[in-house]
Design goal:
Blueprint lengths: L1 E10 L5 E6 L9 E2 L2 E3 L6 H13 L8 E10 L5 E12 L11 E7 L14 H12 L5
Parallel strand pairs: 1-6
Antiparallel strand pairs: 1-4, 2-3, 2-7, 5-6
């Protein structure tokens, strides 16, 4: 079974991107990730992402263009695995207070090239790679 999930690559004007750390006792606890969540059956990816950002961070942001997708299998406690298909969207930051209300205990703004892959959730690796490539592209400057 594949679970479709969306993630926001929230960019500030200074080029930093928001990452959030999952609570240590949550699934994939301790990993940093781009915020987002599951797409409900009746939602578009963009609507799901807007809803998830409101639920997890208490922010209202415009969901921008699609960036990239990845697929990753996570082992389940007790055996088996789940497969997520993660779809990443660029979201321009619009200054407002962030209030972590979901499965995260911390957040920070980082220059994309300084984010360590060994601390980032594996499904997010291709999204980070795509973001760095996009930001380094002469046509995106």
């Amino acid at each position: 079974m594949i679970i479709n999930v969306v993630a926001a690559l929230i960019l500030r004007n200074d080029g930093r991107v928001l990452i959030a750390r999952r609570h240590p006792d949550a699934a994939q606890g301790g990993w940093w990730e781009f915020p987002g969540g599951k797409i409900e059956p009746t939602e578009s990816p963009e609507a799901a992402l807007a809803r998830e950002l409101e639920e997890e961070l208490s922010v209202q942001l415009r969901v921008g263009p699609y960036l990239a997708s990845s697929e990753h299998r996570y082992p389940l406690t007790g055996g088996g695995e789940k497969c997520i298909r993660l779809h990443g969207y660029l979201c321009p930051w619009e200054a407002q207070p962030i209030n972590l209300t979901g499965s995260h205990d911390r957040y920070c703004w980082r220059a994309p090239e300084t984010i360590r892959m060994d601390t980032l959730a594996p499904a997010d690796h291709p999204l980070l790679t795509a973001l760095i490539a996009r930001l380094q592209s002469p046509s995106q400057r």
